[in-house]
Amino acid sequence: MRTLKSLQLSRGAHPLVVDYEKRGNIGLFTLNRPEARNAISHDVSTELEEHLDNFEADEEAWVGILAATGPVFSAGADLKSVSSGKRIETDKGGFAGLVRYPRSKPLIAAVDGPALAGGLEIVLSCDLVVASTAATFGIPEVKRSLIAGAGGLFRLPAAIARNVAMELALTGDPMSAERAFQLGLVNALCEPGSVVQVATELASRIVVNAPVAVRESRKVVLATHGRSDDDGWEITKEHFRVVVKTEDFKEGPLAFVEKRDPIWKGR
Q1: How many Å apart are CA 18 and CA 44, to the nearest integer?
Q2: Number of structural domains the chain divides into
Q3: Which residues lie across from 21 on neighbouring strands?
Q4: Quick one: 133 and 247 in the same domain?
Q5: Strand order in the sheet with 175-176
Q6: Radius of gyration in angstroms for the set of CA atoms belonging to the chain, rounded to a whole number
Q7: Is residue 213 within 8 Å of 243, Cβ to Cβ?
Q8: 170: which DSSP letter?
């Protein structure tokens, strides 16, 4: 597992453009290129994927939060990096090292500014979204004769009503955080400057639960979306069998009987 120090050494004199820290069982990722509107460069994608590798391998990290140093969450692809010939996608994670990353743990987007183009596609790659009233969301690629190629065109209509997703895709116009909240894209709406705090509160509501049960529940929700009830039953059974085999499956009922908080081991 690579550490922050080893990542910094591998970058030489260049500072990290993605920070990562542990807060108990919560991992906090922070895009840190405010001068470039947190545009996704080769280094951003590489570093975020390396942090995700460490996060996934850490048995004590149960939930992640993805934030950004403002005032913009992310403006999407770094065209300077693209024009220089550097790849802004990784082999495993794709754009930002995230949108196709094979995650098993919940990830919360903490959005405190515009999330546009690839920035919105990063948000759509997360499982839950906390946004401030300073946030806006949009896929403006058609305004530059492009299309949203990092998942936005199929993840957005899976997250909100199809016709609204079509409106965003065809006009390229952004929508406010308030509208995104009303449409169900955003789980919690808050004041500017408080997104990490509110996202941490949401993450804290998750980490009190059995981590394997949380991960398997997440998998079922994702795998059954748009599927038939028959498929849903089979998929649920498959993942329930995983939970039954864990030590925590015994700990949950035992803690209830003994009237105490459970002590989860994550296995």
Answers
A1: 6
A2: 2
A3: 28
A4: no
A5: 114-116, 136-138, 175-176
A6: 19
A7: yes
A8: H
Query: Which segment of 104-118, 122-136, 180-194, 251-265 scores lowest on mean pLDDT?
Result: 251-265
Residue indicated by tokens 């090292």: 97
Q: With a cut of 80, say whether residue 12 has pLDDT above it.
A: no
Domain for residue 198, yes or no?
yes
Sheet containing 107-111: which strands, arranged edge to edge?
Answer: 18-23, 26-31, 63-68, 107-111, 128-132, 188-190
Residue 4 pLDDT grade (very low, low, confident, very high; cuts 50, 70, 90)? low
Instruction: Give me 60's structure tokens.
Output: 């004590």
| 147 and 218 share one domain | no
Catalytic residues: 121, 141
What the block records as the tokens of 155 is 């993840």
Task: Work out the average pLDDT over 11-18.
Answer: 75
Q: Which residues pair with 114 in a beta bridge?
A: 136
In percent, the amount of the chain with pLDDT more than 70 equals: 95
